[in-house]
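Case study 2.
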Amino acid sequence: MMQQSTNCLAVVLAVVVSVTTSLETVTKANDSVSLTVVDGSGGVPLTVAEAGQPGSPGILLIHGNGQSYLSWHNQLNSDLADDFHLVAFDLRGHGGSGKPWDVKSYNRACIWAEDIAAVMRETGLEKPIMVGWSRGGLMVMHYVRCMGTGALSGIAMVASRGRLVEVRLPLEDNPARISQVQLEASDLIENLAGADTFATLMTAEPVDGDWSAVSKAMNIMSPPYARRAMRSPTLDPNGDVIFSYADLVERIDVPFLVVLGDQDPLRDSAQLGQAFENALPQAKVLMYPGVGHSPFLEEPQKFNADIRSFVNSVSKAK
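Prediction:
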């Protein structure tokens, strides 16, 4: 038992040293990004990052499963900040935000919506474009279900279906599914293995080692109990289980953008793009060739240009 504990500690220390060095590299340009804490639903503290010009058109960036505001470092530290008000935050149960113990703090759609509304209110975002990546797209749909679209100028879904449309999900023996089982385990070594696997699935081709280390660390910062709670059935305002958000399609009355990578290992992007085109004919669907689950990370310049174009088109249409 002592030897096992010693080995575990050695692994953890090695990860800490690697992440500390890598984090310094990834965040070296973060002098222009300010961090604050906002009270979300039930008083849960949410870490919020801001960059750019308050009062300018707003862009709210919502990360995916096991990640954080740092996922958007190529947007927060880009020329988008010259013309827009950029806000990103750590979802509850993630990163530097609070991680309540009880399931009820995670399994109600409107809790997530209230968190988003609090971030918008406290940062002064008025009618922003809401960008949801992966699970972040589901958070956007939670917001629409509970708050409507009246406070939004547009929606961008990045590698996400948000339960708006149906596509084939990975099989049980898919590495993505296996990694999630490991990340929910009670054993830290299992968690680290899951984080390692999941990080490799985020992009079609390996990204730099610094980002890989930070991505793994972000996964570890989302504890197993919170992950299990987030995977439990989500309830709507009436207390009913939400199986699909297809009924929200008719309520999407703002410009809608979909950004996908054609090499995403987590879902069939061609099928997902077609499903969005069928459900939302007004949506603009962009497919990035040779890109995986993280278009904003793998092709940041292209992604930033597409987001800029989307925000500008929305502003002109007002």
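DSSP finds eleven helices and eight strands in the chain.
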